[in-house]
Design goal:
Layout: E1 11-14, E2 27-36, E3 44-51, E4 57-65, E5 72-73
Antiparallel strand pairs: 1-2, 1-5, 2-3, 3-4
Length: about 120
């Protein structure tokens, strides 16, 4: 993985393979953005939300990752993982426009009554 492969909104595990600071305290994080990444390097500054065990964000941080290739993608986005869109099999009555019936003089509209 390179800094260009990091997806905004993606959930990653930043752990032992990313550098010394994360060897004993790995992070699970949702990426906000890549702040700075050199073109030829494997390191990057990242804005992220740190997630707890339930997946809720509890801290916003800017962290330095020494080896981006050590990050684990916890939500891979392959075509098989993406939800399939369902095609409607029948448009049915919901797609048919409602045509109002013509009003006759003996059918006045009273206040408070709507069509």
């Amino acid at each position: 993985m390179t800094p260009g492969d990091i997806r905004r909104g993606g959930v990653y595990r930043i752990g032992r393979g990313c550098g010394v600071p994360y060897e004993w305290a790995p992070l699970t994080a949702r990426i906000i953005r890549v702040v700075e990444a050199p073109r030829n390097g494997d390191n990057a500054w990242l804005d992220l939300y740190q997630l707890d065990q339930t997946g809720r964000a509890f801290a916003r941080r800017t962290v330095y990752v020494g080896q981006v290739s050590g990050m684990q993608d916890l939500m891979p986005q392959t075509p098989a993982d993406l939800p399939q869109r369902r095609r409607p099999t029948n448009a049915g009555p919901a797609a048919t426009p409602r045509i109002p019936r013509p009003r006759t003089p003996s059918d006045p509209i009273t206040p408070g009554r709507t069509r």
